[in-house]
Amino acid sequence: MEICYENELAMPSSYSLVGQEEMAYVEGGYYMTNDDCKALAFAIGATVSMNIATVASLIIACGTSITAVLASVPVIGWIAAAYGAVTIINSAESIASGLMTALWNGTGMEVSVGFRWFTPYIKCTAK
User: Fold this and answer.
1) How far is the C-alpha of 31 from the C-alpha of 25, rounded, in Å?
2) Which ranges does the record mark as transmembrane (predicted)?
């Protein structure tokens, strides 16, 4: 079979051009500026003297109310609460580490979804 490149490429009427810069970000995610990071730290109650461990514990404390509601439902709620607790703990470490590093360096933070041991978590990297 021979491929012919002589004809023009026919595009559908509803297509839109995508620039090279747009195509570079195929992984997805969200970028938080340094001001956004400061607002997040303020929202979870972090102060200037906080470290990664205390910020992680604040995030876990915020998430325990969700798991407490789930745990009130017998059997399926207990399973969902356990899965939610693991997800919150994995996310808390990553968020706290990325947030404190971003605040310390005066940079922003890239937020995406990662997986550890078949559990999704919020993956944060200071950039």
Assistant:
1) 11
2) 39-61, 68-89
Amino acid at 65: S
Please name which of 99, 78, 89 lies closest in space to residue 120, comparing C-alpha atoms: 89
Query: Which contacts qualify for 84-87: CB closer than 8 Å, 24 or more apart?
Result: 86/119, 87/119, 87/120, 87/121
What are the pLDDT digits (tens) for 82-105?
A: 877 778 877 888 888 888 888 889
Share above pLDDT 90 across residues of the chain, in percent, rounded to a whole number: 1
d(CA 46, CA 55): 6
Q: What is the pTM of this model?
A: 0.60
The CA-to-CA distance between both ends of the chain, in Å, stands at 48
Name the residue among 121, 99, 96 with its Cα closest to residue 110: 99
